Amino acid sequence: MTAIRTMRRALAAVAAAFVGVTLFAGAAAADQDVPPGTTFLAAGTLKLGQDARWSASQGEYLYWQFPAKAGKEIHAKVDLDLASGNARTGPVTYRIEIYDGLRRRQPCVEGKQVATAQKSDTKLALTCVPRVVRDWAEPWSTDPLPGMYFVRIAAMDVPDLDAGAAVKVAVRVDTEDGDDQVPTSDRKLADPLVPISKAGAVLKSGQTADTRSVAWDQEEDHWYQWDWMDGPNARWFWTAMATFVAVVFGILGYQLTRKKRHWFS
Q1: Domain coordinates of the chain in residue numbers?
Q2: Span 45-73, pLDDT tens digits
Q3: Dist. CA 63–CA 45, nearest whole Å
Q4: Within 13 A of 142's CA, how many CA atoms are on the CB side?
Q5: CATH architecture of 33-180
Q6: Which residues lie below 8 Å from residue 220, measured CB to CB, with a gap of 6+?
Q7: Which residue has the higher pLDDT, 212 or 54?
């Protein structure tokens, strides 16, 4: 009996440890350390819907990039953990900005784009929601178009003695379906707006520059598309599928239930 109890306790401990490790791994996967860049070309890559954390210094420009499709509304959120008041000499002001693939700044129509932390404050939150991404726009306009986007976090006003102080940054970007009232057009953008990251690179003979690839993360397109099933097309599709299935089962049922004929018996 003692051996059985000991074995049960050991199995329970192993199960509890397995559950703890699984939960810890899930939390670690949700919060990832994604290093930012200090320029557009060196921007770190964010995964939509996941938190990215990084330790930086006050006064640095921090850049991250992420993809956005047409019809999506971008929601960017930044949480800053500042040094304690004893390590700072005055207030500090931070700003969040969103840029498209052509490095055009997209104005925030919602959210708190600029915030100031007093000397006694240790936390600061910034949010930005630009306009809904459109599928096409006139060349002279600055409307957001599908492609790569950048989020930049910068300190606008930092006391000289506080420059270089430690700050912990947590950034998250989500995309949601935008408003149906956004103007649509029959025209489509030929390629997503993606900045050239290797400008001036010498191409080999027969090689072409590939600057239009965008990692859509969880929103990537597949070889199959279901958009054509919207509206009345769905009814015809399921009617045809039901007819086909009925015919197949009818043939199978006939083959299983029919009597064998003996022609020369």
Answers
A1: 33-180
A2: 999 998 999 999 888 899 999 999 888 99
A3: 9
A4: 9
A5: Sandwich (2.60)
A6: none
A7: 54
